[in-house]
Amino acid sequence: MLALTQNNAQSYTVNLLQTMENKNILSEIQTELKAPKGQRNNFGNYSYRSAEDILEAVKPLLAKHNSALLSNDDIVEIGGRIYVKTTVILIDSERKAFASATGWAREDEVKKGMDVAQITGSSASYSSKRALGNLLCISDSSLDPDRTNKHGKNSPATSTKAVAKTKSELI
């Protein structure tokens, strides 16, 4: 199993540079990937994508490009708070890591209706989603309620119109 540690992180950077000179697999996957927001939060009235949605969308592209993703979660304590750190590594068919990204999520100390394992699992899912998003260039725009935590209070249509009006005023 391939594991990313601080000691070998530099070698992954070197592998990324050497491999990317000959192949644009990561770029091709990023360009071809369509990961729609397949989940719905009815309370917040917004759609979002989960880590599972991203993985389902990327699997055919990984097969097409003879590549794979590896994922590893670490529990890290910083300043008395617990974080889940997820590292996702894209490897080619020769099992050489050539790109990696990390996502973080802080565990809630208490979350109503969840036991400790569920709190950790929820944080791990979110940090995995962030790591996949970082690696695959899936961004949640500033209009995305999942990113802003406004949960539909500022509708995307209103915000989009404000941006368009501002741009036309500048021209």
Structure, explained:
The longest helix is centred in the C-terminal third of the chain and has 21 residues, at 116-136. The chain has 171 residues and is of the alpha+beta class. Helix 3 (51-64) packs across helix 4. Residues 1-15, 17-22, 142-146 and 154-171 have low confidence and may be disordered. Strands 3-4-5 form a 3-stranded antiparallel sheet. A two-stranded antiparallel sheet has the order 1-2. It contains 6 helices and 5 strands, in the order ααββαβββααα.
TL;DR?
With about 170 residues, the chain is α+β, with helices and mostly antiparallel strands. The chain contains 6 helices and 5 strands, in the order ααββαβββααα.
Largest sheet descriptor = 3 strands, antiparallel
Radius of gyration: 18 Å
Poorly predicted regions are 1-15, 17-22, 142-146, 154-171
Structural classification: alpha+beta
What is the strand arrangement across the widest sheet?
3-4-5
Query: For this entry, what is the oligomeric state of its chains?
Result: single chain
The SSE order reads: HHEEHEEEHHH
**What share of the residues does DSSP label as strand, in percent?**
15-25%
Total number of strands: 5
Helix share bin: 40-55%
Shape: globular
Query: Could you report the average pLDDT, rounded to the nearest whole number?
Result: 74
Distance between the termini: 55 Å
| Helix count, DSSP H or I runs of 4 or more residues | 6
Mind sketching the topology for me?
Blueprint: H1 9-22, H2 25-32, E1 39-41, E2 46-48, H3 51-64, E3 67-78, E4 81-92, E5 97-106, H4 116-136, H5 145-148, H6 156-170
Antiparallel strand pairs: 1-2, 3-4, 4-5
Helix pairs in contact: 3-4
